[in-house]
Amino acid sequence: MTGNRAAFDPALPYNDLPPLPPQQELETAKVLKAVIEARSELAALNTACRLIPNPEIITSTIPLREAQASTEIENIVTTNDELFRAHWSVAPEPTPATKEALRYRDALRRGVELIADRPVSEKVATEVCSILQGGQATLRSAPGTYIGDPVQGTRAYTPPEGLDVLQRHLSAWERYIYSDHGLDPLVLMTVTHYQFEAIHPFYDGNGRTGRILNILLLLQEQVLALPVLYLSGTIVDNKAEYYRLLLAVTAGGKWEEWILFMVNAVTESARSTSSLIDELRSLQDATTSRVRAAGVSPAAELAELLFVQPYIRITDVIDAGLAKRQTASMWLSQLADAGILEEQKAGRSKVFLNTAALEVLTRR
Description:
Blueprint (H helix, E strand, L loop, with lengths): L1 H6 L21 H23 L4 H4 L2 H12 L6 H8 L8 H19 L7 H12 L13 E3 L4 E4 L5 H15 L7 H15 L6 H15 L10 H7 L1 H14 L2 H39 L5 H10 L2 E2 L1 H6 L5 H13 L4 E5 L2 E5 L1 H7 L3
Antiparallel strand pairs: 1-2, 3-5, 4-5
Helix pairs in contact: 2-13, 4-6, 4-11, 5-6, 6-7, 6-10, 7-10, 8-9, 9-10, 9-13, 11-13, 12-13, 13-14, 13-17
EC number: 2.7.7.-
Protein name: Adenosine monophosphate-protein transferase SoFic
GO molecular function: nucleotidyltransferase activity
């Protein structure tokens, strides 16, 4: 590794980025111990997902939290509340930052659809990045991209340059994912995430694309049941360390520290997401009882809808097949009078907020 470290110059394109695998041992005793804990928390998360009667309760909401956090890592800041309102179209024109987060939501959703038929690959990464950019993503062919301070003109890292160089590195990255590496999926995710970020293949959206690929790889490797791991939330809380350790791999070959950081982030994220799902499930049960006490039936079905769509309109109740317009309007008004929902104006129409669910979902 000494030769690789000596060859790295942050001011020069790192065209000789070493291909995977590194020369050193990746699954050290410390790493394997961390992996065991992370796999245990992921198993608990998968169990929590199975216990939700309608998975859409979490697949329609938790990925929005991931979208908000992943865009914040790139200093594109919106709030969970702004994003949720935009997602359910109950806000005025979304801010540019919120639009970016909504594209992340769409890119993650599309990525999950893609891996049902094809493996995580350069093509999947390109389609994900295209959605993030709002137009066709292409590999970088012009020089000048670097990671650093543009005001001071200092460079921390200059990724490889040249279309043929990028294609060579991406092909090697993809081949490694499906090689006989023998790595645990969590270690594989961590190692290939570093390599993708180091290649930095696109003009924009590389970090967000890479973090979506993390979720897709865990789904593909069947260690994650649903795309609900709030991994970017843990990363954004430790953003400086995330970038420091990425660079430490490049500059010093410090793989163990990087792998431990990411595997421990999975552990923390899985644990917090499991807790969030458990809280939502308990809250849904309590809401069902409150809806029933308010004299509205079918209580269970309506309470479930309030968690799938915490910003709910009369038309949502109608579209769910639960009632005609007059009855749906009466139900939501009754629930607002009972303090279960909060009625607000959204343009010319009404929207009813499941404030208890939103308090949980928008909490940082």
